[in-house]
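S1.2 Input.
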Amino acid sequence: MSLADDKRLLVEIASLYYEQGLKQEEIAKRVNISRSLVSKYLVRSREEGIVEITIHDEYASPYRALEEQLQGKFQLEDVICIESAGRGLQNKLLGIAAAKYLARIIKPWYTISVSAGTTVHEAAANFPKQSQMTNVRFVPLVGGMGMEHITIQSTRVCELFASRCGGHAVELHAPITVDEPEAKPVFMKQSFIKNVFDEGESADIALVGIGGIPIYSTLTDAYLSDQVNVDSEYSQDKIAGDICYNFINHSGKLADCSWNKRVLAIDLERLKKVPRKIAVSGGKEKVEGIRAALKGNLVDVLITDEKTARDLVEQ
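S1.3 Output.
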């Protein structure tokens, strides 16, 4: 067979298969060759550029290009971007996106460490019930916040996740903060607290929220409302946001403030040891906190909204 005849046969087989929708067995009978040879010709037709397959991935995510920009800028493993909405609805939509992502990647034997917060709570509340995995463990990364924010405490979020998938929730019997800095190391050495943070560090995945500057932070409302406006250590120049209720500076490092010396939460260096850290956060007031967390290598996967993503890319 000449080269021209060979090319014509490639085109004919490709046309029959891709344009006319014939099965490989039907094509084999029509051109009088074996089915296996038809398969080989179809592969060749793609290799030689006779057939070009275009996947319109903009239908899978209309923000694919934006996601890739953000992923490249901060060397992230993955980025999921959703449509921006009002603040209340935004938290729910982000939580739903996080729940879907987690359900897709979770394995039946995984341990998932979880922070506190409204958006992470939404992820737990929307985690698909059909994902029944009785061996999955959910481990809190932050102490409790008392009765005022009981539904978004880390331990409660873990319980909600476990109830949705049939897994097991680990309890952390510790407050979110202590009165004096000297008390923190004493609490952190207690076996019933230390063992939980040890397990959180060795988890397969961490799902965390990222808070904004102190004046917008959930923990501020409960514990620091009188201090934020008067203490310079909580100024926007010094604190970009919080992750696992640790305030971080604009470089993504632990901020030098009295709150961090009293908070009972996983240490940032220990958080970094979790292989896949998924952060779910969005909104104008959280942009600097998210940027700081990305700079500090505290995040591997970011789930956010379009406007937040564009701010992160453009600034």
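S1.4 Remarks. Residues 87-105 form the longest helix (19 residues).
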